[in-house]
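We emphasize that the prediction below concerns an isolated chain of 67 residues; any contacts that depend on oligomerization or on bound cofactors are therefore not represented. The input was used exactly as deposited, without trimming of termini.
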Amino acid sequence: MVECKIQKNKIACNCSYPCSRKGLCCECLSYHKSRDELPACFFPDTVERTYDRSKENFIQTYQGKKR
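Result of the prediction step, given as a C-alpha cell string:
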C-alpha cells in the first residue's frame, strides 16, 4: 500500500479553505469530483481564494479571461 505523505502535501497545498481533507489529496480529488469541481491546486492563488472551483472558472482562468 502506498503511504500518504500528508505533511509534504500540506506544504504544496494552496487551498485557503479550512477542511479535514487538507493534505489528503486522494480524498480532496474525490470530494471535488463528486461535486463536479476541481480542487484548489488547479487554480492560481488569486483565483483559488474566490472558492469558485467550477470547471467553467478553470477554463476561463487559463484562457486568460481571469487572473
